[in-house]
Specification:
Elements lengths: L3 E7 L3 H12 L4 E4 L11 E2 L1 H9 L16 E2 L5 E2 L3 H8 L8 E3 L2 E6 L2 E4 L4 H6 L5 H16 L18 H8 L3 H11 L12 H17 L6 E4 L5 H12 L3 E3 L6 E4 L5 E6 L2 E10 L8 E14 L12 E5 L10 E7 L10 E8 L5 H4 L1 H4 L7 E12 L3 H4 L1 E3 L10 H15 L18
Parallel strand pairs: 1-2, 1-13, 2-10, 7-15, 13-19
Antiparallel strand pairs: 3-4, 5-9, 6-9, 7-8, 11-12, 12-13, 14-17, 14-18, 15-16, 16-17
Helix pairs in contact: 1-9, 1-13, 6-8
């Protein structure tokens, strides 16, 4: 271990593994360490007995739930946008050869007390029970505008400058009502709160386009894809990638103490009496607790069920977003469900998550609106975890720290953090203009 590396990565969470892979592909000499004896850190995947031990403190789960090894329960479950930045990153690094994906069945939103399919094309808008007949026409016109919008072609802008016009002002021009604005902002553009309404509309329009492109790409009933056997495969795929490009991996390294010089710049990492020297450190917040601050908490419930979520057209994999306004909350609530169709549970079993930014100290009560959508559950676990973000200045100490995972059940915010960190570490933008045909799903 007494060697010099350009970058030492601490923790094998998904963000750290993606960065390790990207840097290795760039020819950077990387050492990747983890204090745990398993991959994934906070975003690991557990079998049933591990899940039982974590939440119930008992070694063995009851037999009626099926074989422990047939469960792959992701601790940070998130669907991938079929045309999004994570899929582009996977293709850019050729990690797709280690993974198999399958399209996700459904994308839904909770509006006016009901779970409804998210409409995103003018045709779907006309069929959607979310809106009355006149609102359908207005939404159809708005979706057509978004579909035709090309940032580089002023003819498609209808005389509107979306870098100046706010989302609220743009939507007002189409006369859309509150509920329509709600599902577009939260379930299509995937904003996590309502701040976007007072920000330039370009971001929302480009997010809507990404949703529509992702939906068209796999010609499915949702824009999302998910790996077979769950996300636990992802960190290991990036670990393999890093190894192919000369990266070194060391699991089960206790303590992992980061060393600094007199100026406060990182010089290396010590574990078990040996020090590996480096110029830069990439890590999750747990490795440098004095350089992060708490920014909130996430409340979540994990349920094992024997049926799909009701009112989702028997979807075996589905996301339901509950916009904050629908529950008079400050943040959205997310419902995620996956099943044996993605090989994350035994035949006939479904795994559901309900998550949100905690606003109280009682997750059971706070998550009730989401849990009520699940129907009967075989087992349910509750959990609250703290979220942290870095407060250091990387240009002064060369420490690049990821932000804790949020409550969302899609990857867009996670990938934004990874790409931002990549730019801070390397000083360059990652080129994601890749041939997307390289990623395919099982059905294709």
């Amino acid at each position: 271990m007494d060697e010099e590396y350009e970058v030492i990565v601490l923790g094998t969470g998904l963000k750290e593994c993606i960065l390790s892979g990207l840097l290795s592909v760039d020819g950077v000499k990387v050492l990747h360490m983890d204090r745990n004896d398993y991959y994934g850190g906070e975003s690991t995947s557990l079998n049933l007995n591990q899940l039982w031990k974590k939440f119930k403190g008992e070694d063995k789960a009851p037999e009626h739930l099926g074989a422990s090894r047939d469960y792959n329960v992701d601790m940070m479950p998130k669907f991938m946008m079929g045309n999004g930045k994570l899929v582009r990153t996977l293709i850019h690094t050729d990690v797709t050869k280690y993974l198999s994906f399958k399209a996700v069945d459904g994308s839904y939103v909770f509006v006016k007390g009901k779970v409804q399919k998210v409409p995103v094309t003018p045709m779907e808008a006309l069929k959607s029970p979310l809106m009355g007949i006149f609102e359908k026409r207005r939404a159809g016109k708005f979706f057509s505008y978004v579909q035709d919008y090309d940032e580089k072609d002023p003819k498609t802008h209808n005389g509107m400058d979306l870098t100046r016009l706010t989302t609220k002002e743009l939507i007002a021009k189409f006369g859309l009502d509150e509920n329509t604005i709600d599902f577009i902002g939260h379930a299509v553009a995937l904003h996590t709160n309502d701040q976007h309404l007072n920000q330039p509309a370009l971001d929302t329009v480009m997010r809507m386009k990404l949703y529509a492109e992702s939906l068209a790409r796999f010609q499915g009933t949702s824009p999302y894809i998910y790996p077979l056997y769950g996300l636990g495969e992802l960190p290991q795929a990036f670990a393999r990638l890093s190894a192919v490009y000369g990266g070194t991996y060391m699991l089960n390294k206790p303590e992992c103490k980061v060393e600094f010089d007199e100026e406060g710049k990182v010089t290396g990492v010590t574990s078990e009496g040996e020090t590996a020297r480096c110029k830069k450190i990439v890590c999750d917040p747990s490795y440098l607790p004095n350089k992060v601050r708490k920014i909130g908490r996430v409340a979540r419930a994990i349920a094992i069920m024997s049926h799909p979520i009701p009112n989702t057209n028997d979807s075996h994999s589905v996301q339901v977003i509950i916009p904050q306004k629908q529950l008079a909350r400050k943040s959205d609530m997310y419902v995620f469900c996956c099943s044996y169709s993605h090989n994350v549970a035994p035949k006939g079993k479904f795994i559901a998550f309900v998550s949100t930014d905690a606003e109280t100290d009682n997750p059971q009560t706070e998550l009730k609106a989401g849990i009520d959508l699940l129907g009967p559950v075989d087992e349910i676990f509750f959990d609250v975890y703290d979220r942290y973000e870095p407060v250091n200045e990387p240009e002064l100490d060369n420490c690049f720290i990821s932000t804790s995972y949020d409550a969302t059940t899609h990857f867009e915010t996670t990938v934004a953090d990874v790409l931002n960190m990549y730019t801070l570490i390397t000083g360059k933008q990652l080129d994601l203009s890749v041939d997307l045909s390289a990623a395919s799903t099982e059905e294709e």
